[in-house]
Amino acid sequence: MIFMDKGTIALDIDGTITGSDHLIPAEVADYFETLHSEGWQFVFVTGRPLSFAMMALPKLSFPYLLGVQNGADLLEMPSKKSVDRAYLGLDIVEMVDGLYEGCPGDFLVYSGYEKGDICYYRPDRFPSEMQGYLEEIQKLSGSPWKPVTDFNIEDQQTFPVIKCIGPLKMLEGFYHKLQELEELKATLIRDPISGVFHLILITHKDANKGAALATFVKKYGLKKPVIAGGDDNNDIPLLEQGDVRIVMEGAPNGMGELAHIMAPPAYEMGIIEGIQKGMEWWKKNGS
User: Which of 204, 237, 271 is the last residue of a domain?
Assistant: First the structure.
């Protein structure tokens, strides 16, 4: 893989470069192709599995670096060569299960791309009002969903991510419990699919989008400036690693304080304007 020398562009996918169809628009893909040809290295980091990223980014023909499952798996693309990983043990799954007792709904456990990106779930534990939502995200996931009665998976002892799903008020109390555990990293975000529910992403304590970008920068000597862009709370560590920080319009309250550039929303292909203004900002303010 040949690495570019003009600078690095590190972006979230869902809600930053893709709209409601969860696909990168042709205009955005063409713009990225032009930037790559000019010498910019691209890094994408998503909270979703590899199978989703492959559905979202099919229009990109150049090599790039990719972090999936909120940075639990780091890959060179398109070869899918593993760069690094940080997985949860089965003991963490069991711990989360114990903490979840008494809460309405349930959580999902993902296998990782080498195990087929399977999403394990317990359908009987989700209330009826969430069944339609589960069906919708199954269609969008691009990976198999496997119903189970428990998460004691015989052929797997480690997992990249756990996702808790539910209304914000229900998840907030559980989120505060998770914040007290040093063994893991928990991030509360909006669900970009339903527009109603929220998610808690639970990963290894060393897996987050900022750590993913830092690993790529160190391993490959990626060049400055690092232009980082995102639209939700799990993108904050990614933005904090950036020399130039782009936050998409509509991001949660408080994220704008991190921004050097506020970009129009993804459905308006605002990342193009955001990157252009970010490059201008760096010329004036960078060192």
Answer: 204
